Amino acid sequence: MALTLGQKAGWGLADMGVVVFVVVKQLLVLTFLTSFLGVPVGIAGFVTTAVLVFDMITDPLIGYLSDRTQSRFGRRAPWMFWGALVMPAGMIGLFAVPQGLALAGNLVWVTGFFVLATIGFTMIAIPYGAMAGEITQNPRERSAMTGWRMGFASVGILVGGALIPGIAAAKGYAWAAITVSPLIAGAVWLSLLATAKAPHIVQAAPVGLSESFRTVLANRAFLVLVVLYGVMTMAIALITAGLPFAAIYLVVDSGDTALSGAAAALSTLSLMFAAFVAGAILSQAVWVLLSHRLGKLWALVLGLCLYVGLLYGLYLALPSVNVTAIAGIFVLAGMTNGAYQQIPWAMYPDLMDVTRAQTGLALEGAFSAVWLFGQKLANALAPAVLGLILSAAGWQEATGGYVAQTDGALAALQLSVTLIPAAVLSIAVLGLVIFYRPQAERALA
Predict the structure, then answer these.
(1) Fewest CB atoms within 10 Å of the CB: 173, 177, 300, 383?
(2) Which string of DSSP letters, residue by residue, matches 66-128?
(3) Could you give the number of structural domains in the chain?
(4) Positive or negative, the Cα torsion across 246, 249, 250, 255?
(5) CATH number of the structural domain spanning residue 395
Protein backbone atom coordinates (compact mmCIF):
# COMPACT_ATOMS: atom_id res chain seq x y z
CA MET A 1 0.00 0.00 0.00
CA ALA A 2 1.43 3.36 -1.06
CA LEU A 3 1.99 5.95 1.64
CA THR A 4 -0.02 9.15 1.52
CA LEU A 5 1.67 12.53 1.28
CA GLY A 6 0.62 13.22 4.86
CA GLN A 7 2.26 10.00 6.06
CA LYS A 8 5.52 10.73 4.24
CA ALA A 9 5.67 14.29 5.52
CA GLY A 10 4.43 13.26 8.96
CA TRP A 11 7.18 10.68 9.32
CA GLY A 12 9.74 13.33 8.41
CA LEU A 13 8.38 15.81 10.97
CA ALA A 14 9.85 13.92 13.96
CA ASP A 15 13.38 14.72 12.86
CA MET A 16 12.77 18.43 13.36
CA GLY A 17 12.61 17.81 17.10
CA VAL A 18 15.42 15.25 17.16
CA VAL A 19 17.86 17.45 15.25
CA VAL A 20 17.46 20.33 17.70
CA PHE A 21 19.19 18.20 20.31
CA VAL A 22 21.74 16.83 17.82
CA VAL A 23 22.81 20.38 16.98
CA VAL A 24 22.88 21.38 20.64
CA LYS A 25 25.19 18.51 21.60
CA GLN A 26 27.45 19.03 18.59
CA LEU A 27 27.50 22.80 18.56
CA LEU A 28 26.94 24.13 22.06
CA VAL A 29 28.05 21.70 24.76
CA LEU A 30 31.78 22.01 24.09
CA THR A 31 31.49 25.80 23.79
CA PHE A 32 29.37 25.98 26.97
CA LEU A 33 31.98 24.04 28.93
CA THR A 34 35.00 25.96 27.66
CA SER A 35 33.66 29.47 27.16
CA PHE A 36 31.18 29.79 30.04
CA LEU A 37 32.22 27.27 32.71
CA GLY A 38 35.97 27.74 32.24
CA VAL A 39 36.73 24.05 31.59
CA PRO A 40 40.02 23.53 29.69
CA VAL A 41 39.29 22.61 26.08
CA GLY A 42 41.10 19.27 26.21
CA ILE A 43 39.13 18.11 29.28
CA ALA A 44 35.86 19.41 27.84
CA GLY A 45 36.44 17.54 24.58
CA PHE A 46 37.07 14.24 26.34
CA VAL A 47 34.09 14.67 28.69
CA THR A 48 31.82 15.25 25.70
CA THR A 49 33.30 12.25 23.94
CA ALA A 50 32.90 10.01 27.00
CA VAL A 51 29.18 10.79 27.26
CA LEU A 52 28.60 10.12 23.59
CA VAL A 53 30.53 6.84 23.76
CA PHE A 54 28.27 5.80 26.65
CA ASP A 55 25.30 6.72 24.48
CA MET A 56 26.40 4.18 21.88
CA ILE A 57 26.14 1.40 24.47
CA THR A 58 22.39 1.92 24.71
CA ASP A 59 21.80 1.69 20.94
CA PRO A 60 21.92 -2.11 20.51
CA LEU A 61 19.75 -2.66 23.59
CA ILE A 62 17.02 -0.24 22.54
CA GLY A 63 17.16 -1.47 18.94
CA TYR A 64 16.72 -5.05 20.14
CA LEU A 65 13.97 -4.16 22.62
CA SER A 66 12.04 -2.14 20.05
CA ASP A 67 12.15 -5.11 17.64
CA ARG A 68 10.64 -7.27 20.40
CA THR A 69 8.11 -4.73 21.72
CA GLN A 70 4.45 -5.60 21.37
CA SER A 71 1.76 -3.00 22.00
CA ARG A 72 -1.46 -1.81 20.43
CA PHE A 73 0.52 1.21 19.18
CA GLY A 74 3.14 -0.90 17.38
CA ARG A 75 6.76 -1.70 18.11
CA ARG A 76 8.25 1.79 17.80
CA ALA A 77 5.73 4.35 19.05
CA PRO A 78 6.00 3.72 22.83
CA TRP A 79 9.76 4.28 22.79
CA MET A 80 9.48 7.47 20.78
CA PHE A 81 6.65 8.85 22.91
CA TRP A 82 8.54 8.58 26.20
CA GLY A 83 11.87 9.54 24.66
CA ALA A 84 10.30 12.84 23.65
CA LEU A 85 9.94 13.62 27.36
CA VAL A 86 13.29 12.30 28.58
CA MET A 87 15.46 14.05 25.96
CA PRO A 88 14.34 17.67 26.54
CA ALA A 89 14.33 17.16 30.32
CA GLY A 90 17.98 16.15 30.17
CA MET A 91 18.83 19.02 27.82
CA ILE A 92 17.30 21.58 30.18
CA GLY A 93 19.16 20.15 33.14
CA LEU A 94 22.43 20.11 31.22
CA PHE A 95 22.48 23.90 30.97
CA ALA A 96 20.85 24.65 34.35
CA VAL A 97 24.17 24.44 36.23
CA PRO A 98 23.90 25.92 39.74
CA GLN A 99 26.15 28.87 40.42
CA GLY A 100 29.12 28.46 42.71
CA LEU A 101 30.14 24.92 41.77
CA ALA A 102 33.82 24.13 41.43
CA LEU A 103 35.27 22.66 38.22
CA ALA A 104 34.57 19.08 39.33
CA GLY A 105 31.01 19.95 40.31
CA ASN A 106 30.33 21.58 36.96
CA LEU A 107 31.63 18.52 35.14
CA VAL A 108 29.56 16.07 37.21
CA TRP A 109 26.37 18.12 36.76
CA VAL A 110 26.75 18.55 33.01
CA THR A 111 27.80 14.94 32.49
CA GLY A 112 24.84 13.51 34.43
CA PHE A 113 22.19 15.45 32.54
CA PHE A 114 24.00 14.95 29.24
CA VAL A 115 23.75 11.19 29.81
CA LEU A 116 20.02 11.49 30.54
CA ALA A 117 19.42 13.56 27.41
CA THR A 118 21.34 11.14 25.18
CA ILE A 119 19.37 8.17 26.54
CA GLY A 120 16.18 10.01 25.57
CA PHE A 121 17.66 10.72 22.16
CA THR A 122 18.36 7.02 21.62
CA MET A 123 14.81 6.11 22.66
CA ILE A 124 13.60 8.26 19.75
CA ALA A 125 16.30 7.89 17.13
CA ILE A 126 16.62 4.09 16.98
CA PRO A 127 12.89 3.30 16.59
CA TYR A 128 12.46 6.29 14.27
CA GLY A 129 15.16 5.08 11.90
CA ALA A 130 13.65 1.59 12.02
CA MET A 131 10.32 2.93 10.76
CA ALA A 132 11.91 3.84 7.40
CA GLY A 133 12.38 0.16 6.67
CA GLU A 134 9.06 -0.85 8.17
CA ILE A 135 6.34 1.39 6.76
CA THR A 136 7.39 1.01 3.10
CA GLN A 137 9.57 -1.26 0.96
CA ASN A 138 9.52 1.11 -2.03
CA PRO A 139 12.95 2.74 -2.64
CA ARG A 140 11.42 5.79 -4.36
CA GLU A 141 9.05 6.35 -1.46
CA ARG A 142 12.00 6.19 0.89
CA SER A 143 13.78 8.92 -1.07
CA ALA A 144 10.67 11.12 -0.87
CA MET A 145 10.23 10.38 2.84
CA THR A 146 13.85 11.22 3.49
CA GLY A 147 13.50 14.44 1.52
CA TRP A 148 10.67 15.48 3.86
CA ARG A 149 12.70 14.34 6.83
CA MET A 150 15.73 16.40 5.92
CA GLY A 151 13.61 19.42 5.06
CA PHE A 152 12.18 19.33 8.58
CA ALA A 153 15.63 18.51 9.96
CA SER A 154 16.92 21.69 8.35
CA VAL A 155 14.33 23.65 10.31
CA GLY A 156 15.58 21.84 13.42
CA ILE A 157 19.13 22.87 12.53
CA LEU A 158 17.96 26.46 12.22
CA VAL A 159 16.30 26.33 15.62
CA GLY A 160 19.25 24.58 17.26
CA GLY A 161 21.98 26.59 15.57
CA ALA A 162 20.37 30.01 15.18
CA LEU A 163 17.51 30.45 17.65
CA ILE A 164 18.99 28.76 20.71
CA PRO A 165 22.28 30.75 20.72
CA GLY A 166 20.31 34.00 20.39
CA ILE A 167 18.00 33.12 23.28
CA ALA A 168 20.95 31.83 25.29
CA ALA A 169 22.82 35.09 24.82
CA ALA A 170 19.81 37.08 26.01
CA LYS A 171 18.35 34.86 28.75
CA GLY A 172 20.77 31.99 29.33
CA TYR A 173 21.22 28.50 27.94
CA ALA A 174 18.77 26.82 30.33
CA TRP A 175 15.98 29.20 29.34
CA ALA A 176 16.76 28.58 25.66
CA ALA A 177 16.43 24.83 26.25
CA ILE A 178 13.10 25.34 28.01
CA THR A 179 11.85 27.46 25.11
CA VAL A 180 12.47 24.81 22.44
CA SER A 181 11.41 21.75 24.48
CA PRO A 182 7.74 21.92 23.39
CA LEU A 183 8.92 21.93 19.78
CA ILE A 184 10.99 18.79 20.37
CA ALA A 185 8.22 16.80 22.04
CA GLY A 186 5.48 18.16 19.80
CA ALA A 187 7.27 17.24 16.57
CA VAL A 188 7.76 13.63 17.69
CA TRP A 189 4.21 13.21 18.96
CA LEU A 190 2.63 14.76 15.86
CA SER A 191 4.75 12.45 13.70
CA LEU A 192 3.46 9.43 15.61
CA LEU A 193 -0.10 10.64 15.10
CA ALA A 194 0.43 11.21 11.35
CA THR A 195 1.88 7.73 10.80
CA ALA A 196 -0.46 5.80 13.11
CA LYS A 197 -2.34 4.26 10.16
CA ALA A 198 0.73 3.64 7.98
CA PRO A 199 1.70 -0.03 7.37
CA HIS A 200 3.63 -1.50 10.30
CA ILE A 201 5.26 -4.82 11.06
CA VAL A 202 3.70 -5.70 14.40
CA GLN A 203 5.14 -9.18 14.94
CA ALA A 204 8.03 -9.16 17.42
CA ALA A 205 11.32 -10.53 16.05
CA PRO A 206 11.68 -14.08 17.47
CA VAL A 207 15.48 -14.06 17.94
CA GLY A 208 17.86 -13.23 20.77
CA LEU A 209 20.12 -10.19 21.03
CA SER A 210 23.31 -11.80 19.73
CA GLU A 211 21.60 -13.59 16.83
CA SER A 212 19.79 -10.40 15.88
CA PHE A 213 23.01 -8.46 15.47
CA ARG A 214 24.90 -11.32 13.84
CA THR A 215 22.20 -11.38 11.19
CA VAL A 216 22.46 -7.64 10.60
CA LEU A 217 26.27 -7.67 10.46
CA ALA A 218 26.18 -10.46 7.87
CA ASN A 219 24.85 -7.87 5.41
CA ARG A 220 28.23 -6.77 4.02
CA ALA A 221 26.96 -3.91 1.88
CA PHE A 222 25.19 -2.41 4.88
CA LEU A 223 28.27 -2.79 7.06
CA VAL A 224 30.46 -0.96 4.53
CA LEU A 225 27.88 1.83 4.25
CA VAL A 226 27.79 2.19 8.06
CA VAL A 227 31.56 2.67 8.16
CA LEU A 228 31.57 5.19 5.31
CA TYR A 229 28.67 7.15 6.75
CA GLY A 230 30.65 7.37 9.99
CA VAL A 231 33.60 8.77 8.02
CA MET A 232 31.33 11.39 6.42
CA THR A 233 29.88 12.28 9.79
CA MET A 234 33.32 12.79 11.28
CA ALA A 235 33.96 15.50 8.70
CA ILE A 236 30.63 17.22 9.35
CA ALA A 237 30.98 16.91 13.13
CA LEU A 238 34.41 18.56 13.03
CA ILE A 239 32.92 21.48 11.13
CA THR A 240 29.97 21.75 13.49
CA ALA A 241 32.09 21.59 16.65
CA GLY A 242 34.43 24.25 15.30
CA LEU A 243 31.83 26.67 13.96
CA PRO A 244 31.14 28.52 17.24
CA PHE A 245 34.85 29.26 17.55
CA ALA A 246 35.10 30.20 13.85
CA ALA A 247 32.18 32.63 14.19
CA ILE A 248 34.02 34.40 17.01
CA TYR A 249 37.59 34.33 15.72
CA LEU A 250 37.56 33.88 11.92
CA VAL A 251 34.57 35.93 10.75
CA VAL A 252 34.87 39.46 12.07
CA ASP A 253 32.16 41.62 10.52
CA SER A 254 33.45 44.89 9.07
CA GLY A 255 30.03 46.46 9.55
CA ASP A 256 29.67 47.72 5.98
CA THR A 257 28.40 44.71 3.99
CA ALA A 258 24.85 43.85 2.97
CA LEU A 259 24.24 41.45 5.84
CA SER A 260 26.12 43.32 8.57
CA GLY A 261 22.88 44.41 10.18
CA ALA A 262 21.60 40.85 10.28
CA ALA A 263 24.88 39.62 11.77
CA ALA A 264 24.68 42.27 14.48
CA ALA A 265 21.06 41.43 15.28
CA LEU A 266 21.29 37.62 15.15
CA SER A 267 25.00 37.09 15.93
CA THR A 268 27.41 35.89 13.27
CA LEU A 269 26.93 32.24 14.27
CA SER A 270 23.15 32.46 13.93
CA LEU A 271 23.42 34.15 10.54
CA MET A 272 25.79 31.46 9.25
CA PHE A 273 23.43 28.74 10.39
CA ALA A 274 20.46 30.50 8.83
CA ALA A 275 22.33 30.67 5.51
CA PHE A 276 23.36 27.01 5.81
CA VAL A 277 19.80 25.90 6.53
CA ALA A 278 18.41 27.93 3.64
CA GLY A 279 20.73 26.09 1.28
CA ALA A 280 19.86 22.71 2.79
CA ILE A 281 16.10 23.32 2.45
CA LEU A 282 16.44 24.53 -1.12
CA SER A 283 18.43 21.43 -2.09
CA GLN A 284 16.17 18.64 -0.77
CA ALA A 285 13.95 18.30 -3.84
CA VAL A 286 17.04 18.48 -6.05
CA TRP A 287 18.72 15.55 -4.28
CA VAL A 288 15.53 13.47 -4.46
CA LEU A 289 15.39 14.13 -8.21
CA LEU A 290 19.09 13.38 -8.71
CA SER A 291 18.72 10.16 -6.69
CA HIS A 292 16.03 9.06 -9.15
CA ARG A 293 18.01 10.13 -12.23
CA LEU A 294 21.57 9.11 -11.28
CA GLY A 295 20.87 6.51 -8.62
CA LYS A 296 21.37 7.14 -4.92
CA LEU A 297 25.05 6.21 -4.89
CA TRP A 298 26.17 8.52 -7.70
CA ALA A 299 24.00 11.38 -6.45
CA LEU A 300 25.74 11.07 -3.07
CA VAL A 301 29.19 10.96 -4.68
CA LEU A 302 28.35 14.12 -6.64
CA GLY A 303 27.17 15.91 -3.51
CA LEU A 304 30.26 15.00 -1.51
CA CYS A 305 32.60 16.12 -4.29
CA LEU A 306 30.84 19.47 -4.44
CA TYR A 307 31.13 19.70 -0.66
CA VAL A 308 34.90 19.20 -0.84
CA GLY A 309 35.14 22.03 -3.35
CA LEU A 310 33.08 24.35 -1.14
CA LEU A 311 35.28 23.64 1.88
CA TYR A 312 38.38 24.51 -0.12
CA GLY A 313 36.73 27.75 -1.15
CA LEU A 314 35.88 28.50 2.48
CA TYR A 315 39.50 27.87 3.46
CA LEU A 316 40.63 30.47 0.94
CA ALA A 317 38.00 32.96 2.16
CA LEU A 318 38.91 32.74 5.88
CA PRO A 319 39.62 34.71 7.95
CA SER A 320 37.17 37.29 6.64
CA VAL A 321 35.57 40.62 7.49
CA ASN A 322 32.93 40.20 4.76
CA VAL A 323 30.05 38.47 6.51
CA THR A 324 27.91 38.65 3.37
CA ALA A 325 30.41 36.67 1.28
CA ILE A 326 30.79 34.04 4.00
CA ALA A 327 27.00 33.73 4.30
CA GLY A 328 26.84 33.12 0.55
CA ILE A 329 29.39 30.31 0.84
CA PHE A 330 27.33 28.83 3.66
CA VAL A 331 24.21 28.78 1.48
CA LEU A 332 26.12 26.74 -1.10
CA ALA A 333 27.61 24.55 1.64
CA GLY A 334 24.11 23.87 2.92
CA MET A 335 23.05 22.76 -0.55
CA THR A 336 25.95 20.31 -0.83
CA ASN A 337 25.41 19.14 2.75
CA GLY A 338 21.87 18.22 1.68
CA ALA A 339 23.29 15.17 -0.10
CA TYR A 340 25.01 13.96 3.08
CA GLN A 341 21.86 14.67 5.11
CA GLN A 342 19.42 12.92 2.84
CA ILE A 343 20.78 10.22 0.57
CA PRO A 344 22.49 7.76 2.98
CA TRP A 345 19.31 7.69 5.07
CA ALA A 346 17.38 6.61 1.96
CA MET A 347 20.05 4.04 1.04
CA TYR A 348 20.32 1.95 4.17
CA PRO A 349 16.63 0.91 4.48
CA ASP A 350 16.93 -0.64 1.01
CA LEU A 351 19.56 -2.96 2.50
CA MET A 352 17.18 -3.93 5.31
CA ASP A 353 14.96 -5.43 2.61
CA VAL A 354 17.80 -7.71 1.50
CA THR A 355 18.17 -9.29 4.94
CA ARG A 356 14.38 -9.53 5.42
CA ALA A 357 14.05 -11.35 2.08
CA GLN A 358 16.93 -13.72 2.87
CA THR A 359 16.03 -14.58 6.47
CA GLY A 360 12.37 -13.64 6.95
CA LEU A 361 13.34 -11.59 10.03
CA ALA A 362 12.13 -8.01 10.56
CA LEU A 363 15.12 -6.51 12.40
CA GLU A 364 14.69 -2.83 11.58
CA GLY A 365 15.54 -1.78 15.15
CA ALA A 366 18.83 -3.68 15.08
CA PHE A 367 19.65 -2.18 11.68
CA SER A 368 18.89 1.29 13.00
CA ALA A 369 21.12 0.74 16.04
CA VAL A 370 24.08 -0.37 13.93
CA TRP A 371 23.45 2.45 11.45
CA LEU A 372 23.59 5.10 14.15
CA PHE A 373 26.70 3.53 15.68
CA GLY A 374 29.01 4.98 13.03
CA GLN A 375 27.33 8.37 13.22
CA LYS A 376 27.44 8.49 17.01
CA LEU A 377 31.05 7.30 17.13
CA ALA A 378 32.06 10.11 14.79
CA ASN A 379 30.06 12.66 16.75
CA ALA A 380 31.67 11.38 19.94
CA LEU A 381 35.21 11.55 18.59
CA ALA A 382 34.94 14.90 16.82
CA PRO A 383 34.93 17.15 19.94
CA ALA A 384 37.93 15.27 21.35
CA VAL A 385 39.78 15.50 18.03
CA LEU A 386 39.04 19.21 17.76
CA GLY A 387 40.03 19.70 21.39
CA LEU A 388 43.35 17.92 20.81
CA ILE A 389 44.10 19.93 17.67
CA LEU A 390 43.33 23.26 19.32
CA SER A 391 45.04 22.34 22.58
CA ALA A 392 48.20 21.31 20.73
CA ALA A 393 48.14 24.67 18.93
CA GLY A 394 47.93 26.56 22.24
CA TRP A 395 44.23 27.41 22.35
CA GLN A 396 43.22 29.37 25.47
CA GLU A 397 39.94 28.64 27.30
CA ALA A 398 37.72 31.50 28.49
CA THR A 399 34.87 32.28 30.88
CA GLY A 400 33.49 35.30 29.04
CA GLY A 401 33.19 33.98 25.48
CA TYR A 402 36.37 35.55 24.02
CA VAL A 403 40.10 35.60 24.70
CA ALA A 404 42.93 36.55 22.35
CA GLN A 405 44.43 33.56 20.50
CA THR A 406 47.80 33.08 18.82
CA ASP A 407 48.18 32.99 15.04
CA GLY A 408 49.05 29.28 15.28
CA ALA A 409 45.87 28.51 17.22
CA LEU A 410 43.75 30.41 14.69
CA ALA A 411 45.44 28.61 11.79
CA ALA A 412 44.66 25.26 13.45
CA LEU A 413 41.02 26.30 13.83
CA GLN A 414 40.85 27.32 10.16
CA LEU A 415 42.19 23.92 9.04
CA SER A 416 39.83 22.10 11.42
CA VAL A 417 36.70 23.52 9.79
CA THR A 418 37.86 23.42 6.15
CA LEU A 419 40.71 21.33 4.75
CA ILE A 420 40.73 18.55 7.35
CA PRO A 421 36.99 17.82 6.85
CA ALA A 422 37.49 18.08 3.07
CA ALA A 423 40.19 15.39 3.24
CA VAL A 424 37.92 13.14 5.32
CA LEU A 425 35.05 13.54 2.84
CA SER A 426 37.42 12.65 0.01
CA ILE A 427 38.23 9.38 1.77
CA ALA A 428 34.48 8.67 2.02
CA VAL A 429 34.04 9.25 -1.72
CA LEU A 430 36.81 6.79 -2.56
CA GLY A 431 35.29 4.25 -0.17
CA LEU A 432 31.85 4.56 -1.77
CA VAL A 433 33.21 3.95 -5.26
CA ILE A 434 35.83 1.29 -4.48
CA PHE A 435 34.26 -0.70 -1.63
CA TYR A 436 30.53 0.01 -1.33
CA ARG A 437 29.51 -0.01 -5.01
CA PRO A 438 30.46 -3.64 -5.78
CA GLN A 439 28.92 -4.89 -2.51
CA ALA A 440 25.66 -3.03 -3.14
CA GLU A 441 25.42 -4.17 -6.73
CA ARG A 442 25.64 -7.81 -5.61
CA ALA A 443 23.18 -7.37 -2.73
CA LEU A 444 20.54 -5.40 -4.63
CA ALA A 445 20.78 -7.30 -7.92
Answers:
(1) 173
(2) HHH---TT-SSHHHHHHHHHHHHHHHHHHH-PPTT--HHHHHHHHHHHHHHHHHHHHHHHHHH
(3) 1
(4) positive
(5) 1.20.1250.20
